[in-house]
Write a structure and sequence with these properties.
Blueprint: E1 10-15, H1 22-38, E2 42-52, E3 55-64, E4 70-76, H2 79-114
Parallel strand pairs: 1-2
Antiparallel strand pairs: 2-3, 3-4
Helix pairs in contact: 1-2
């Protein structure tokens, strides 16, 4: 099992898998870039890799601001692809959450303008 530095809000684990040095760095860069696209406040994230037969499974648990935890999971023949697929699922959830918030703010502004 391997994890990154304690000061980072991102924890990366490999269950019976050697992740090396490049994969955790790739995960941290891509995850931070994706979350900062929609929200600036990443509270914590956990990324886990495990082997499932011939493929690898990646599970991402992420919490931004005070929202509920968002989860993305995917399987692929290699760890990088599994992570990218799981990150796409989390990005969709982040985008939807941001869109809902923007819509709620617009509704409040409209309601305030008509009152």
């Amino acid at each position: 099992m391997m994890s990154n530095t304690l000061s980072s809000p991102i924890r990366i684990n490999g269950f019976q898998i050697d992740l090396g040095d490049a994969l955790p760095q790739h995960v941290q860069e891509r995850l931070l870039a994706t979350t900062e696209t929609y929200f600036q406040d990443l509270k914590h994230a956990s990324v886990g890799f495990r082997r499932e037969g011939q493929s690898y499974c990646c599970t991402i648990n992420i919490q931004v601001s005070n929202f509920r935890i968002m989860i993305g999971e995917a399987s692929a023949p290699d760890c990088y692809r599994a992570f990218d697929l799981a990150l796409e699922k989390v990005a969709v959830q982040l985008r939807r959450r941001k869109r809902r918030l923007d819509g709620a703010v617009r509704e409040e502004v409209r309601a305030g303008a008509t009152a």
